Amino acid sequence: TDSLCPVQEVLRxxxxxxxxxxxxxxxxxxxxxYFTKFNLSEMANxxxxxxxxxxxxxxxxxxxxxxxxxxxxxxxxxLDDAHERVFDDSKGVEQVPLGLYLIRGDNVACVGEVDxxxxxxxxxxxxxxxxxxxxxx
Length: 137
Fold this sequence. Notes:
- This protein is of the alpha+beta class.
- It is built from 4 helices and 5 strands, in the order H-H-H-E-E-E-E-E-H.
- It is elongated and about 55 Å long.
């Protein structure tokens, strides 16, 4: 392993992590199909979401949806064709267009890929809910 370039070393360590996750679920008797399908080391890889519709929940309670264009080591995110989903307990969900949008990494609470088939059938204008509260430290 001394002669591996940094990229090869990262890939080797990811595979070790993946193998340990599967082995540990087998030893506990938990349904391994569930954990193999939703392996955290794969889910946490933002590179796979570049170019896909992504939802970001921010620390101040905002929900931003757009196409993930890029990110850096501090999880600063660049979204294109972004819009904010503003929830209201009486009016439904309003979608405010933002265009090209940068979210600072220290304000990112959660990131996930959006299933467009499900998202298109939600009927957001008919959904009413209170906005998310901000994270309190």
